[in-house]
Prior knowledge:
Layout: H1 2-9, H2 16-27, H3 31-35, H4 57-67, E1 82-86, E2 89-92, E3 97-100, H5 103-106, H6 115-127, H7 138-148, E4 157-161, H8 164-179, E5 184-187, H9 196-201, E6 216-219, H10 233-247, E7 254-258, E8 260-261, E9 267-268, H11 273-283, E10 287-291, E11 316-319, E12 330-334, H12 336-339, H13 355-370, H14 373-394, E13 398-404, E14 407-415, E15 420-421, H15 423-436, E16 438-439, E17 441-443, E18 449-452, H16 460-475
Amino acid sequence: MxxxxxxxxxxxxxxxxxxxxxxxxxxxxxxxxxNDLSLPKMPPFDYSPPxxxxxxxxxxxxxxxxxxxxxxxxxYNKAVNVVDGKRQYxxxxxxxxxxxxSGGIATVCCGHCHxxxxxxxxxxxxxxxxxxxxxxxxxxxxxxxxxxxxLPGDLKVVFFTNSGTEANExxxxxxxxxxxxxxxxxxxxxxxxxxxxTMGATGQSIWKFNVVQSGVHHALNPDPxxxxxxxxxxxxxxxxxxxxxxxxxxxxxxxLSESIQGVGGIIELAPGYLPAVYSSIKKAGGLCIADExxxxxxxxxxxxxxxxxxxxxxxxxxxxxxxxxxxxxxAVVTTPEIAEVLTRSCYFNTFGGNPVCTxxxxxxxxxxxxxxxxxxxxxxxxxxxxxxxxxxxxxxIIGDVRxxxxxxxxxxxxxxxxxxxxxxxxxxLMDQMKELGVxxxxxxxxxxxxxxxxxxxxxxxxxxxLVDAMxxxxxxx
Length: 477
């Protein structure tokens, strides 16, 4: 009713009365919470968005249907029209505030519209929006230097791309050129992108089309919850060695994996897995590629990069998402020796290293350091995980709580013994939590895992509100 009234009032969009009315609405807490004192309360936040006078959710949906990719989906029975964002919160067309527990799918690390990142983008855009890497510009070199300083060993040569898909495609190309081999091993349940090569490396049928995907072998997923060997990383690693021995010539180009599977449902690889696998790959002449698109940039809290949680150093690291806080930006970082292979021909990316994007990336790195966001991810993430684990003791529908830092997963099942995916219940609970003011992600092969990947400025009060909202929603099942 309130949304309908808002649209009627705003039909005269230049009306000062309409703007004042809407500004008042925007400052209110969710009306559902005002009417029921038993509902969880969102933490206070000193920001009100300006009045919105754009098209309604219904109008946007109609245009999406008419003009955009028909495969596009949206969360919730009633789609949310997000028009404003600040730090860890989002606002819809009616001025209602939501806690963003998804972070644009592990992308918004500094918080929505962080002033330092916005300033860097605006200032660079005013000065030079784009030229070409055929000319010199300090934005790309300054960011490359800063990024290389965050990586171990000899990982110091940076190739910029526009996305994680592009970064993984380039990493696979480099590995094949460097080794002279074609075979790449990745993991079942992994996700690496939706281009030709990365679709082949992805280990979930729901993200694949029926096109030629060759040269990739998928090893058993070292999943401590659903995997056949539980948490025994070395047994899973033995399967990968068998793949090398029986599925290849004995030599491979690379092993590509996430350190924590994001799209696959926030799955940490079984302890000891990566050291054993990296050893096998090295003996087979291959390179080790760490996909840090979702787990990188301090999100795990304990480390800046996810691969560091298993004590390994890869040959190539790919990254995107959090690298630009929402700006289209990705990167591949490798050693000088390996990077040299791209000089055999002409490799070029028109927008890779764009000055606006790289200026944003440098600002993101500085904010992460200045505001101690990695430490915050550790402290708040650990607190949140403890609270979610306590919730598991209360509700049988929670089969597993996992992850680290602010990259957490809650898997829902209808039967804990059988681990039967609670797909319908997950969708229902997402809708209920949205009504309470929490936007949360969803993933896993069965679509039954809450993916909690908020901005790294998340607070303990936000964590409490998220868990209280989940608790309330589950109590109504």
